[in-house]
Structure formats: structure tokens, C-alpha cells
Amino acid sequence: EVQLVESGGGLVQPGGSLRLSCAASGFTFSDHYMDWVRQAPGKGLEWVGRTRIKADTYTTEYAASVKGRFTISRDDSKNSLYLQMNTLKTEDTAVYYCARDDGYYVLWGQGTLVTVSS
Amino acid sequence: EIVMTQSPATLSVSPGERATLSCRASQSVSSNLAWYQQKPGQTPRLLIYGASTRATGVPARFSGSGSGTEFTLTISSLQSEDFAVYYCQQYNNWPPITFGPGTKVDIK
What we know:
The complex is a heterodimer.
Chain A (H helix, E strand, L loop, with lengths): L2 E5 L2 E3 L5 E8 L7 E7 L5 E7 L8 E3 L7 E6 L4 E6 L8 E8 L10 E5 L2
Chain B lengths: L3 E4 L2 E4 L5 E7 L7 E6 L6 E5 L3 E2 L7 E6 L2 E6 L9 E6 L7 E2 L3 E5 L1
Parallel strand pairs in B: 2-11
Antiparallel strand pairs in B: 1-3, 3-8, 4-5, 4-9, 5-6, 7-8, 9-10, 9-11
């Protein structure tokens, strides 16, 4: 079955860190750019960032709102995508989705909730 | 950054009626425009990509049109399962990928 499964969400204090994971299955993970997209409670969708494939030297790009605080990485040997989130702010509270990047997003994970609160 | 806007914010429609949703880009995105449907508590579902190509399994009552800066999603005859929030997304100029704020289609 083609799917993405996120994990690692939870409650963290402002200024804290959290690492999200996304396990891919059912497709050739290493052939695809992979993105993180988030959705704050009751709000719309916001692109967080992207990692390219090995042929493109695994380069990454980030939204301005998270640049310098968040890091996206991948392990093709484990078919896994990661989002390291540091210096978290209350406004980072959201459901975080990993998504396969075909330009548009056909395949999404179920999402993992990150709550930043004291 | 390309800014996406959607109108109206809320659209009240009776079942069986036609719904027309608009999406505008702050600069041309060619035909690199996608539409998503999201129901409460669910993951977004891709409906349309390339401005007018239906994704696999999407009913024919959904159609997309437009290019450049003006796009439309039409639902020809609303079914009960179509009441949801709809987002447009451009993937022509990035980073960043940008989404519209959404149009909520609710029952009139």
C-alpha cells in the first residue's frame, strides 16, 4: 500500500525542540522530492519546506517563517523523512503533514499534531 | 512570493446546485495550479492538477479551468459529500509553494 505515516508530535514548551518522522512505503521513496506542510488549528495550509533527491544533492528549501529553526532531512535507506524543529514558538502549533512532492500533492500522511505551549 | 487569493470565503449551496469557486494568483502561474478538498478532521485530497486534470478517482462533476492568474473550480451538481473546504495551490514559482486561504462550501 502506498502510504506515508508521521510520528513524533506532542506537547512542547516554547523554545523547545521536537523531531518529526515520516515513514514511506509502497513507492520508490528515493525518487521523490518530499515536503512538510502544516495546518494551524482552524486555519489553512502552509508549506514548511522541501528536500530534494540525491541527484539534486538533497538540497532543502524552507518557508521564511521556519528558516533557521527547522531542518528537513531524509534517509533513503530507511524510506524516511524527518523534520527537526528547534526554538519552537506558540505559532508553530499545527498538524504537520509529510507529502510526496509531485509539484502538487497526491500523497499525504495522516498528520501529527505539534502543540507549543507552556 | 506568489500570493493566492480565493473567493468567496464561504459559499452556501443547496444539494444538486452548481458551485463555482475562484482562485487568483498575484502573478502568472501558467497552468501549475492544483485544487484540494478537505473535510473536517481529514487530510487534504487532491482533486485537480495542471489547472484542469482530474486526479485519479475524482468524480466528473469536479472540473477545473483557467491559466495564468485566474482559475475556477466548478462542482456541477453538489452532493452531500462535497461540503468541505477547498484550497488552491500554485507550484509554478517556488520556493515557496503557496496555498490560497480556502473556500468553505456549506449547505444552504
